[in-house]
Amino acid sequence: MSHHDDLIAKDILGYLDAQENKSFLRFITCGSVDDGKSTLIGRLLYDSKLIYEDQLASIEKDSVKSGTQGDKIDLALLVDGLAAEREQGITIDVAYRFFSTDKRKFIVADTPGHEQYTRNMATGASTADVAILLIDSRYGVQVQTRRHAYIASLLGIKHVVVAVNKMDIMDFDQRVFADIETDFRDFAKDLGFEEIMCIPMSALDGDNVTTKSDRAKWYKGPALLEFLEDVDVDSGTLDNPFRLPVQWVNRPDLDFRGFSGTIASGVVKQGDEIIVLPSGKRSTVKDIVTFDGSLKSAREDQAVTITLDTEIDISRGDIICAAEFPAEQSDQFQAHMLWMDEAELFPGRQYLLKTTNKTVPASVTNLKHKVNVNDLSEEAGKTLELNEVGVVTLSLGAPIAFDAYNDNRMTGSFILIDRHTNATVGVGMLDYSLRRASNVVWQDLNITKAERAEMKNQKPAVLWFTGLSGSGKSTIANLVEKRLFDLGRHTYILDGDNVRHGLNKDLGFTDADRVENIRRVSETAKLMADAGLVTLVSFISPFRAERQIARSMMDEGEFIEVYVDTPLEVAEKRDVKGLYAKARAGEIKNFTGIDSEYQAPLNSELTINTVEMSAEEAAEQIVAYLRENGYLGGV
Length: 635
Fold this sequence. Notes:
It is a single chain. The chain has 18 helices and 28 strands. The chain is α/β, with parallel strands linked by helices. The strands form 5 sheets. Strands 7, 8, 9, 11, 12, 13, 15 and 16 form an 8-stranded antiparallel sheet that branches. The protein has a 6-stranded mixed sheet with strand order 2-3-1-4-5-6, with helices on both faces.
């Protein structure tokens, strides 16, 4: 099945050593739907004689049933493994294939062309060194061509092959090829590619895939495989400073303590001085251990265990760096981000950010602009939807060690994770630290929260009233405050309608604005709790995620969720302000309970059923809860 090599018969150990020491290249195929990506990979495997006989027989059989090439074998079926892919003749998932030639080993990722699967294309591109961007010669550069080129650039791919495919249909017309090449180069001139190689080809027939074609004698460049064998992608990365994100502290016995991980960049040698972040501790590399024994040096992409000549505290998630070139540390960033979730991004919502082996709480504090992939222009927006790219600012719950993505793809990349579903919702590239944030230092104050609260003879609390519009939140909160005032307690009400006249008057009622609305109110409530007050927050606050953020901001026991449970039909009947009627008539958009979702609490401290009890009874129940749990001092 593999390419012929005389060493196999003469010197099997020499052959295995030669295979082990070949250079390695990862590349992707991408572009618009039905441009021939899967067929191209199939042709590479077929012409390189890397298909088992039984596999080839199976493909020949499937070509009759599911193929799209008439009497010819459909090589796309080699990588379109899902039943849905074969039935529809498209690629849905990312398919990885390994093959090798006498010169090099390869892993190729066949990525989907459909816009809805753009996130899958980004997954394949995240580890690739070269992108093969296919263009159907009949249609030229398409929207998805531009989108994939931009994402390849964004993800740090420096070498691009523009494979102008299906040239056999166009009789290998040189003018057709030249027009497409000019069009693409004009678009890509600002994308930062180091090399753009344009090749006219027919993936179906094999023209200019593994060997040069006689049908395009006017083309003087290399065949695709020749280019892939010779392209230099290693020289730049090995010059980068050494980085080893620690994945595991290896302690099999009392006599050995090593730090394991895959080298993200650069080279490390025995005797090199290193610095560990975030601690800043320094030491010297004593040994570089692998399964096959110790090494004098190791390079990018090698999995190693490093031992040091001194005992210093290192944990999973730390980064071991070259001492003279340590990574930066920050908790505030500008970043480019590709959104990968069906549910849109809401600035202000809490997510988890994972970079290398470290995970920290994070939120997108601002969407600076979206990027139009057709012309790379900037567009205003408040949120990102599936497959959209934007420039954002990030705020992290703890500092991380990092390099700018343009300098290091491993330590400059991250994913965003939904805190509740654990789904990956976004992938991003760190541009730079917002250094001004590093200069803002928390000012210690002489009077503490506990002292302020003791003076008021109460414990700080945030009573968070949530429920539908018209459920009775504000009415009950007012009655609770009046009762606490009579008891001599210090309180303040943050009411949804009132706050929108001042602090949040710039916000609308989209889901994104609702998230920001609650974020600001949560910060305000936190300050009031710090002042020792009992704060009553009366907001619809429809999303569990934002209520959870508010809870996480407060100290243990300070946040008391009060679910004012009123059925929608009851709230509509009350409709004192006539809002439901307007929403039903389409005069108010994004109205909670009508055309915007309300997520009821799952484990609230208090649930008030306003159908079964009056507002006065509800207020007494809440005050009793505060008294019984020690919030009201000696009352």
